[in-house]
Amino acid sequence: MRDGQKMAVIGAVCAVAVGAAGFGAYALVGDESTAATGSRTTGGEDDAKPRAVETGPLSAAEVRGAATEFLTAWESGDAAAAAALTDEESAARTALTAFAEDGGVTGVRLDERAPRETEVPFEVTAEVARDEATGTLEYVSELTVVRDEGTGGPVVDWEPSVLHPELAPGDTLVTDAEGDPEVVAVDRAGNELTAEEFPELKSVLADIRKRYADQAGGTAPVRTRIVDAAGEDKKVLAQHTEGTPGEVPTTLDADLQRAAQAAVEKTGGASAVAIKPSTGEVLAVAATPVEAFNPALRGSYAPGSTWKVVSASLLIEKGLASADAPHPCPQFFTHGGWKFQNLDEFQIDGGTFRESFARSCNTAFIGQAGELSDDDLTQQARDLFGLGLTWQVGTGTFDGSVPVQSDAQMAASLIGQGGVRMNPLTMASVAATVRSGAFHQPYLVPPSVDGRTLASAPRAMSPALAQELRSLMRTTATAPYGTATAALASVGGDKGGKTGSAEVDGQEQPNAWFIGYSDDLAASAVVPASGHGGTHAGPVVAEILNAG
Prior knowledge:
Elements (H helix, E strand, L loop, with lengths): L1 H28 L2 H6 L22 H16 L3 H5 L5 H13 L3 E8 L6 E12 L2 E15 L6 E3 L15 E5 L6 E4 L5 E2 L8 H10 L11 E5 L5 E7 L6 E4 L4 H12 L4 E7 L4 E8 L6 H4 L9 H10 L14 E4 L2 E4 L11 H6 L4 H4 L9 H10 L21 H7 L10 H13 L26 H16 L16 E8 L8 E8 L2 E7 L5 H4 L1 H10 L1
Helix pairs in contact: 7-17, 9-12, 14-15
């Protein structure tokens, strides 16, 4: 009886052992008949043959089981375990690890949805953290369960899209603050300047932001994005912080900018610049119509009689003119084969250079051409007024051109015709140089931003010359016969002005020019194809000076 009991126990143990061996065989090789019966064939040739790998359709239980096991391992943060449940363990482990590390994913919640045959959709809620920024990604992804080719067991068919439906092979999910932060330009008071509010500055602001992005500071927003194998952004999935815009300071005065723009818009088409004479800071840049090309800074025009300020400085220094000395202003004067005349063919009998300057007598200047060398005007413009040097304004500009000319063209250059080319920026600088008595290169972005060196005049203007030029411009703006008097009648302070009307071939009306200053504000304006400078450009400058 004792022996019989012992045999029964042994039999039971053997039964258990055989059953366990049968499950193990199914799990490893997928022999369904063996697993079902729990029996094994012994003896004979069949024992040496490998068992067949299961290739039939997956059952619903297998699909659900494989998906649940994979998602559970992933959700627990065990990339190795999750990867082992796929058909590409190495690739899956690398991708799952990168998802957490590069993607900044600190945790995921994965909620299965109802399977569709072998496809199992699931909801993903991923918590993201990077550089003190936190956020959440929510999306629906999907996995497919297949039979492992080696074992026949159910595994996840690995694809990058399991991690996120928009991930393709070679793509990576990245969360960082890489990239350029937004850059804004601000006025001298720190107020943002936008192209929406100041459309006339659109091209200037875009250029400034591009030039000084590296010096602007700021921080890029923290974003989660898909990056391809080449490191290029494919798509931004989420932005977790706004970032801090970098700022580029400018010398512009937003209030004066508005006033200048309002002034030029009254003309139908004009451009103007305002400068602070004591420093060279550009305070306003106005232009209409609004175009990508800004004529106030980049335009190239003959400046007409406003250029006589520079020519007057040359004649005075050469001893060919003096403000209150007699100076001829004939009706006509011929030089280099050209016959020059004054507006409306006027002449001044027994007048002074002051009167010729204030009334804008052309022949008073042309008549001295024979006493000058061809390069005298070019040198004078460069050495005292900085014209012809390379300026570092902080944005793209045309800095004027005074080519060496001879004969009639040289004579024409003395009255701002010939080959002389300027714009409101350069001519505002001429007025500012006279007002301050020294050339201060205009700049729109402070040189302290990038450490650039501003242009400097090769020689200083003498105090006596500066005083004489101011006296001439004051007379032009205040005397009854001054061509700028009417336009600047409303302007107070220590003021001066000069008009100009530049002839253009094929143009019915000349370009109207005006330069002027009042105290520590200088301005210049050109109104193309309009007529006399005092009538058309003068009111623009006056409005700017009154707003300063």
